[in-house]
Write a structure and sequence with these properties.
It is a single chain. This protein is an alpha/beta fold. It contains eight helices and nine strands. The protein has a nine-stranded mixed sheet with strand order 1-2-3-5-4-6-7-8-9, sandwiched between helices.
């Protein structure tokens, strides 16, 4: 006899043709996790079980996960111990919200392309960007959405910004504690510089870039100028009372409300 959760999961697979569906962790009702084929590579994803048939899909992109250990050495598996991006997507007030993990997170053993450079020095490479773009396309297609709002936490914000420069279906861009200027970030944190595709200014896209005043991983003072350059006149760059991990998920409702305000203001111009 199947449980109700198992039946719902199986139905979701049949309806959306997504593979490896699994119920969410205990206590996370209304949420389903599954695996998708993103351009030939597996990606872990999640979605509100009630999502679908909406014009706009919110896609939250996960951070870098366990890319390095405490000594700065690449790990053997980048799967995050605490998936902050997933927590943000789960807490997002709109039912059309999804989460997309980064390449090799949760699926390292199932992806022959996974090797340490993919989640360390090459984590913003064109190949990783292409995989994430394909993942967004899959989630968008299976929810029948016409447009997307990209929300990226930490390194996921870098991916979200790059994708926003490449796509024509991005209604809004939100980044949280994101090192959008990687060169400045590397200097401020005394870390090895990372290469990423250029992020052109996006004045036509409604943007909200939030940094934390207690964030030592992505220091606001160093990163605010880069975010302002990307956002242009229509974007908002704000420094909230937050660290790097805490407490973006707890403020998901406030973030969504602030974004709606910016969208309303943009529509009235």
């Amino acid at each position: 006899m199947w449980s109700r959760a198992a039946r719902a999961c199986a139905a979701f697979v049949l309806l959306t043709a997504l593979s490896a569906c699994a119920t969410a962790p205990a206590g996370k009702r209304g949420w389903t996790q599954f695996r998708i084929d993103a351009g030939g590579r597996p990606l872990q994803a999640g979605m509100q079980t009630a999502a679908g048939n909406g014009e706009v899909l919110v896609v939250v992109l996960e951070g870098d996960g366990r890319a390095h250990d405490a000594r700065g050495r690449p790990t053997r598996d980048p799967t995050p111990g605490h998936a902050v991006g997933r927590d943000i997507a789960m807490a997002w007030p709109d039912r059309n919200a999804a989460w997309l993990a980064r390449p090799c997170q949760y699926v390292r053993r199932q992806d022959a392309s996974c090797a340490e450079p993919a989640w360390s020095q090459e984590r913003f490479s064109p190949a990783q960007i292409d995989t994430m773009a394909a993942g967004v396309d899959v989630l968008k297609a299976h929810t029948q959405a016409q447009r997307v709002i990209l929300v990226g936490w930490s390194g996921g914000g870098v991916i979200a910004a790059v994708l926003a420069t490449r796509r024509t279906d991005v209604e809004a861009l939100v980044t949280l504690a994101a090192p959008l200027d990687l060169s400045t970030w590397a200097t401020a944190t005394q870390t090895t510089p990372l290469a990423a595709p250029p992020i052109a200014p996006l004045p036509e896209v409604v943007q909200l870039h939030l940094l934390g005043n207690r964030d030592r991983v992505a220091p606001a003072a160093a990163l605010e100028p880069g975010a302002r350059k990307l956002a242009g006149d229509r974007g908002a760059i704000e420094i909230w009372d937050a660290g790097h991990l805490c407490c973006w998920a707890a403020q998901a409702g406030r973030i969504a409300a602030r974004l709606r305000d910016l969208q309303t203001q943009a529509a009235q111009r």
